[in-house]
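ARCHIVE CARD
Drawer: 12
Card no.: 0347
Subject: one protein chain, sequence and derived structure
Cross-reference: see card 0346
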Amino acid sequence: MYHSEINQDNICAISTPAGYGGVAIIRISGKDSISIVNSIFTRDIINATGYTLKFGTIKHENLEIDQVMVSIYRSPKSFTGEDVVEIACHGSIYIQHKIIEILHEKKVRLAKAGEFSQRAFLNGKMDLTQTEAVADLIYAKSESAHQIALNQMKGSFTNELSMLRDKLIELASLVELELDFAEEDVDFADKSQLKMLIDEIITRLIDLKQSFSYGNAIKNGVPVVIIGKPNAGKSTLLNKIIKEERALVSNIPGTTRDTIEESFVIEGIEFRFIDTAGIRDTIDTVEKMGVNRSLEMAKKASILIYLYDASEINNKEVENDILNFKKNGIPIITIANKIDLIQKNNLLGDLHISANNLNDVEMVKKHILKLFLKIGETYEGTILTNSRHLEAINLCLSDLNKVKEGLINNTSGEFLAMDIRQSLHQLGTITGEISTEELLGNIFANFCIGK
């Protein structure tokens, strides 16, 4: 593990959102935090036990600043692992800044972004995946994103990685033990046993890797791209789904020239609905740019809605369009729209609707949710949401594939052991067992001040 010298400074920050509110929380952490707060508080907290709450007044040079509640957390049983004090004051901006100003006079500096969480990591209160989950929990915009972050913060991903590391250590031990007794020509490791073990590890890592598209979609909102020919009713459908007149609706083909995106939560999952320019051949330069952008957005979708005007387009055209979009390998919901204008019975598609009918729109939302949940059923246990973790797993897989190839080709155990150790290194970077100053700086810089 990378050991950084933990800064001994006492730090403080406003941990609640900026602005006015009923209550604001000011957090102080460091070896002198209790004695410093004690010097400006009307109640004695020097001998207060951890997890206690005291009511009193913050004073400075005989001037009363505010009546507050002070929470005391003793090292090591605190968030950061250090002595921590939290001052709950009234939400006046003046009061918040005045208390911070007084703390500065007491040699308490303003915390950097993520510094409280960084100290928690460096003091062994959490590993790196858990501290990253803290940030994800704060920024979670839906129930599903909240649940994934909460599970990771509780250590579900850490436990998964720990089991994989144990298996890799077992693999390394078998290979290196055989190296130690190479001169005696003794085989401690059955090659078939090694191959089974490496296949088991690779399979699980691939499962984690493949879960990233699903987990990342939940974390940042599931991109649902609505695509089709001009005047299919794409903008109308978007407006009805989000219950807002967001996209311009017109009878003139080619009204939508660019993508329009809006988020909407369905049953605890955030979906990012993206309306696109109608797909058609055109000589209009601007519209052509919109069409090209639509096709690019379709490739980035988690779910693609192909919407067509049932009163205008024939089944053959629909089949050709669907065939082209299926090449992207993205789940497609085909929807026939404007069925109120026709009397056809042989329409293609998963759903037949009128986008102006609210019951039909609810049916579309339920279908989208059902399809996404079905995609999620293929992923069991830990769901990957962090691109840094994905990169480390890809590097680990690369090293393990070298090991697998080496076993097949009877490569020297020295080279096998080297690749196994490297794969262990890659997994270690995920939890922070292997880390650098630059890595930690990049991670915690994305945290909010006060966390």
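Annotation on reverse: DSSP finds 15 helices and twelve strands in the chain. The first helix runs from residue 33 to 38.
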